[in-house]
Amino acid sequence: MKLQERLPGGVIVDGRKYRLDFDFRNVLSMLETLARDDLMPDARAWLALKCLMKHPPKNPLPVIAAVKALLFPDSGGKQPTQKKLTDFKQDADLIRAAFLQAYKINLWRDSLHWMEFTALLNALPEGSRYSEILGIRARPMPKPTKYNQEERKWLAQAKAACAVQMSDKERESILHASMHRTAASLLRLAERGEQSAK
Fold this sequence. Notes:
With about 200 residues, the protein is mostly helical. The chain folds into three domains: about 10-75, no CATH class; about 90-160, no CATH class; about 170-198. Helix content is about 55%, strand content about 5%. The chain is built from eight helices and two strands, in the order E-E-H-H-H-H-H-H-H-H. It has helices at about 25-35, 40-50, 60-70, 90-105, 115-120, 130-140, 150-160, 170-195; strands spanning about 10-15, 15-20. The chain has a two-stranded antiparallel ribbon. Strand 1 (about 10-15) and strand 2 form a beta hairpin. Helix 1 (about 25-35) packs antiparallel against helix 2. Residues about 75-80 have low confidence and may be disordered.
């Protein structure tokens, strides 16, 4: 988003403007709704839009697609899929404390547009417990040497103590992705074997 641009207050779909409330609380509620697997896609999209507006349209799918493309532009409208370093539910108190410490913003009371919230979250300076925990989660485990046994032991314990807790759905998704990668690797090996046999 360019520095001179104002925060968006809605999306345009097929020439029609939909006014939406992008307060960070509403967007987090929308994301929780979109993650539900007990709803049909249309119902899930309608309820997700209900988090942002009073009267969602009868066909909510193109509007929710436009919302996701606007709010998550780097992922093509999809939610980020890289290694999860934070969880808004698990880290809620840490994030509130970090905002209060760094910006004097009280997330219990203050309203912030989602884009403003994420920009400030991503720019939190060092010095908060939240930043410290993110650093531990993101820090790679060094390769073992005869000199770093204590460091590796400490880091493994620290990572376990502050790890992001995964839901059953997330574990299942990671398992499926791993199985898919393994199957693709086996298929490539089999194709190479056939080519070398010719």
